[in-house]
Amino acid sequence: MNSQINKIRERRAIRVRAGISGTALRPRLSVFRSHRFIYAQLIDDASGKTLAAASSKEVKVKGDKKAQAKAVGESIAKKAKDLGIKSAIFDRGAYQYHGRVKILAEAFKEGGLNL
After folding, report:
1. How far apart are CA 22 and CA 7, in angstroms?
2. 9-20: per-residue pLDDT in tens?
């Protein structure tokens, strides 16, 4: 049963990722969500490099996971602004655009950047 769920999740991630590619001017904002933490990376797929990264491990926010996701979104937006990035392409992976993933994306937008 668990292996079936993993296969479905992998196929969904591949399907979402198929049409997304980041560049230096408009990198891909990739989100990974574990049970305890949430991570975000700005990736330039053309050169294969990570431009910036943020996680709830480094942000150190008290509160629930939603507050942590918002803090990570704000942190990655600040790092993007420092690099001169004005917009990004959102890569939600196999996750629904709901809950912590949505909060992170909205915090990124509130930071003055486009998705």
Report:
1. 25
2. 888 888 887 878
| CB proximity list for 101: less than 8 A, separation 6 or greater | 31, 33, 69, 92, 95
Tell me, letter by letter, the H, E, C secondary structure of the chain.
CHHHHHHHHHHHHHHHHCCCCCCCCCCEEEEEECCCCEEEEEEECCCCEEEEEEEHHHHCCCCCHHHHHHHHHHHHHHHHHHCCCCECEEECCCCCCCCHHHHHHHHHHHCCCEC
Backbone angles phi, psi at 91, to 5 degrees: -115, 100
- Chain segment 20-40, per-residue pLDDT in tens: 888 888 899 999 999 999 999
Residue with tokens 């629930």: 64
Cα atoms found within 13 Å of the Cα of residue 90, Cβ hemisphere only: 19
User: Which residues 6+ apart lie within 8 Å of 69 measured at CB?
Assistant: 38, 56, 100, 101, 103, 104, 107
Computed on alpha carbons and rounded to an integer, the radius of gyration of the chain in Å comes to 14
